[in-house]
Structure formats: C-alpha cells, structure tokens
Amino acid sequence: MNKSLLYLVALLFPLFLYSQSDSLVLNDTTQFSNAIRINLARYKTECAHANRTGDFERSKFLFDSLVQNRLTGTRFDDFTFKKVNNSKIKLSSIQKPIVLVTYASWCVTSQGEIPALNKLAQKYGKDVQFVVVFWDRRAKMKKLAKKFNHRVIVCYAHESYRNDSQTIGILKHTLGLPNTFFLDENLKVSDIKRCGVQVSLEKANYQKGYALNYNAFLEGMVPFLLNKELEKEMLVIK
C-alpha cells in the first residue's frame, strides 16, 4: 500500500468511527451533552495527536466529522445564561432559531468578525436571535458588550460562579472556543462552526475578512430563514 493510500485511510478512519451507531445520537430526543460525552474521549485523543504532529488539516477534519456525524441533529441542552444587565435568559424561552457564539475576553477576534455579526443581527434579528457567551467574569463584560449590536444578547459564564460549572464543562471544555452553534427554534443542532475566519491583520484585508465572516455566519443561517435567495447575497471576496 503506497503512502498516499495510507494517508487517505488514516484520514477517513475517524469519519467511519463517528458514523457508527447513529441511533445513539441522530434523533430529536438525544441531548447534545450526551452525544458529546459519548464521542469526546476518542475525538480528543485523535485531535491531540494531529495537533502534536502539526497536522491541522486533519484536526479540522476531525472536528467537522464529529459535528456532521455525531452532533448535528441532537437537541441542544436548555442552558440558562447570565446577561450583562444582571437578568438571565433560558434558551427555550427564545422560541426562534439561535446563533450562539462562544468567546473569551482574551480571544482575539478575526478581522471583520464582530462587524459581520452585528450586520447580520441588525438585518435578521427579527427572525434569528443572536447570543454571545463569554467565558469570563461579569466585570469584563460591560466594555465588551458595547462592541455588539443591540440585537445581540451578550452573556457570560465562569468556573468561579455558582451553577456555571456544568455549562462550561459541556460547551467550553469539549470543543474549545471560539465556536458558533446554529440551533433551530426547537434547539435542534443544525450546525457547529469554528467562528472567526482568519486573514492577515493588514488594513487592506479588512473587507476580505468582513466578507469571509459574513458569509460563514450567513451560511449557517440559511436553513433557518428558508430563503434560498440568501445564497445569492454572499459577498464577493476580492
């Protein structure tokens, strides 16, 4: 067996593993937390090896395979998040599709990422609820919250706060961050993406970064809006 074929087998093997026993996860009643718990050990082992060897393409493939074959179609846990204004929000109370983005204050967002998210929230906020969760203490949130459109609900959670440990264990310490979770009105997972399309930081690349991030978020929203015309709106990347 030549080296190219061996590499292909090694690349596809995790996809085969994650596609087995679909009855465990691919139904409307299986919770996201159960699905990720079943698959997490193997996923982390495979990813750790890929990252140690510098095979980031494989690491991305493993993430995409886990999402597509094991997590998409599960029911997201009905988390309650603390909002910056001291109130709380339970996901099931939103009753419309949700774009849930997880960050941390020390995470450097990519070029044009927040402006792209704000533009989409302003344009589609009546049909889709945008929620941003920072894995940080409240003290840092007021300044950060000002960066987001008023239609984006800014929340926070931290290990030191009471009742946050389960949420952080399920969302932060499994797939890492930053991530974007696309949930339908019944909290069914439609897709999960690594948010933030990276480009170099030169000012000349701002428009490209903005367009790439806008398109990435918009792509995840298309199934919610049931409007194929959105696909024609993708910004031209120059």
TrEMBL record:
GO MF: antioxidant activity; oxidoreductase activity
Thioredoxin domain mapped to chain residues: 70-227
Protein name as annotated: Thioredoxin domain-containing protein
Coiled-coil annotated spans: none
CDD domains: TlpA_like_family (cd02966)
PROSITE patterns associated with the record: THIOREDOXIN_2
Source organism of this protein record: Flavobacterium subsaxonicum WB 4.1-42 = DSM 21790
Record Pfam families: AhpC-TSA
